[in-house]
Design a protein that fits this description.
Helix content is about 45%, strand content about 15%. It is an alpha+beta fold. It folds into three domains: about 180 residues, no CATH class; about 260 residues, no CATH class; about 40 residues, no CATH class. Strands 3, 8, 9, 10, 11 and 12 form a six-stranded antiparallel β-sheet that branches. Helix 4 packs parallel to helix 16. The two termini are about 30 Å apart. The structure holds adenosine monophosphate and magnesium ion. Adenosine monophosphate binds next to loops. Magnesium ion (MG) binds next to loops. InterPro entries: SelO (IPR003846).
Length: about 500
């Protein structure tokens, strides 16, 4: 790369261990040069958490770095190859608009990927332009940071830059680049890629790398690959239960959008459910509701089955035995998921102990909520705050009966009212990024270059469990909406 595109390494040390993997898993790609880079969002808290020099990121060199205009001299930016089942159909994919600048070893010793999304075409771009528009990148920033504050594993957003370029969609939009920070970008689809187009030795290399990077304890196991499978299953059973508990709908749970580290990734068409309905779908392209709210746990199992299939030759030398190990792992996912979800739901209802009747109690409440089109987030807040008097749901006979049973159930534990209220506050967010508030703040930023709404929305969604200071502006459901909310991906 020519000299003026390079920054000295003294500011930030990045490594590229991923390039030690078989060459077919990546291609060397430099980010495009952009005309007028401007940082519009900068996550100083995250930069500090990671231990990256904030002064550097705020400097002229920092802007060049975050826009891809210059790269650190000792790194090799790459695009990663992967495959994936998209809505059930298997395809060869790869980073079509993302460039992995390198890995950074954070202050806490954890290795993270630093990736620019929207940095230009790569070998895997297919028909795409490799670019990203400002609105969707800001949306990813808001929702991923909200997810993090909700206590859900997720890729993070370090910055959003406008490029000074137009990108062509249905109309011309402002070009933008998001700096994504992730534990890694190893996807179920990465394993599918190597399983389909690599050798057994190459599959083993990817699995060993993954174990070494994410599941170190597996190294000393008799069969580290069985350990890998079980750990990935555990992570997803934990993650997807957390999504369900806060009403998060990912929207595009293709196998290329499921990472083995257990982080939520790819914020294209995701959105939070407002009215409780298991059939909720926001994504414009999810015509058959494959990724509807209520289907997410099952889709998790389906994706993990695809992951397990790729590992079969490493699980056991005898194929029947290998299949049995894989099947056991997937069954284990469903039972772990249910266990996580039930204990999460119990916490949402202030229950410390476990009783046989709890499952029925939970199901009954959700059933009534669906019938009365209750706002998912606010109903649990109302229970926490004992605000359950007005409105169709709370005045209904079914709810009153349920409420009595719940009160009775609470007395079966020895914990005080104060204790169970605290438990509920910790598990029932008051603020989620409500779709209309997100849209409103994006519009102001994109159309009027005014970022004040985004900043106040971010402030609210990054303290979701703060009951001492609830801002009604962000907790009010959107009553004015008469058409269903729609989200779009790949924009
Ligand atoms: P997604 O739906 O965001 O998971 O993207 C699916 C695939 O399309 C990924 O391989 C992306 O890298 C690729 N892709 C999305 N948008 C673009 C774009 N504008 N240019 C090139 N590739 C893209
Ligand atoms: Mg994706």
């Amino acid at each position: 790369m020519n000299k003026e595109r390079v920054i000295e390494d003294k500011y930030l040390e990045l490594e590229n261990t991923y390039t030690s993997l078989p060459q077919k898993l990546f291609s060397s790609e430099n980010p495009d040069k952009v005309p007028v880079p401007k940082v519009v969002m900068f996550n100083e808290v995250l930069a500090k958490e990671l231990g990256i020099d904030v002064q550097f990121l705020k400097s002229k060199e920092g802007v060049d770095f975050l826009s891809g205009n210059r790269i650190l001299s000792a790194t090799t930016p790459i695009a990663q190859a992967y495959a994936g089942h998209q809505f059930g159909y298997f395809t060869m994919l790869g980073d079509g608009r993302a460039v992995l600048l390198g890995e950074y070893v954070a202050k806490n010793g954890e290795r993270v990927d630093i990736q620019l999304k929207g940095a230009g075409r790569t070998q895997y771009s297919r028909g795409g332009d490799g670019k990203a528009a400002l609105g969707p990148m800001l949306r990813e920033y808001i929702i991923s940071e909200a997810m993090n504050a909700l206590g859900i594993d997720t890729t993070r957003s370090l910055a959003v830059v406008t490029t000074g370029e137009e990108v062509i969609r249905e109309k011309e939009l402002q070009g933008s680049i998001l700096t994504r920070v992730a534990k890694s970008h190893i996807r179920v689809g990465t394993f599918q890629f190597i399983s389909n187009w690599g050798t057994l030795e190459e599959l083993k290399e990817l699995a060993d790398y993954s174990i070494n990077r994410h599941f170190k304890k597996g190294i000393s196991e008799e069969n580290p690959y069985i350990y890998l499978l079980h750990e990935v299953v555990k992570k997803q059973a934990d993650l997807i239960a957390k999504w369900q508990l806060v009403g998060f709908i990912h929207g595009v749970m293709n196998t290329d959008n499921m990472v083995i580290s257990g982080e939520t990734i790819d914020y294209g068409p995701c959105a939070f459910m407002d009215v409780y309905d298991t059939n909720t779908v926001f994504s414009s392209i999810d015509t058959y509701g494959r990724y509807a709210y209520g289907n997410q746990p099952q889709i998790g199992a389906w994706n993990l089955a695809r992951f397990a299939e790729t590992l079969l030759p490493l699980l056991h030398e005898n194929q029947d035995e290998a299949i049995k190990i894989a099947q056991d792992a997937i069954e284990n996912y469903m039972s772990l998921y249910k266990k996580n979800w039930h204990s999460g739901m119990r916490r949402k209802l202030g229950l410390f102990t476990e009783e046989n009747e709890d499952e029925k109690l939970i199901e009954e409440l959700l059933f009534i909520m669906q019938r009365y089109k209750a706002d998912y987030t606010n109903t649990f807040c109302d229970l926490t705050l004992e605000r359950v008097h007005e409105g169709e749901l709370y005045e209904s006979r079914e709810f009153k009966k349920w409420y009595e049973l719940w009160q009775k159930r609470l007395t079966k534990q020895s914990n005080s009212v104060g204790e169970y209220k605290k438990l509920m506050e910790k598990n029932n967010p008051t603020v989620i990024p409500r779709n209309y508030r997100v849209e409103e703040s994006l519009k102001e930023a994109v159309d009027n270059n005014d970022y004040s709404s985004i900043k106040s929305l971010l402030k609210a969604v990054t303290r979701p469990y703060d009951y001492s200071n609830i801002d009604e502006y962000y907790t009010k459901p959107d009553k004015s909406r008469d058409t269903p909310y729609r989200t779009y991906c790949g924009t």
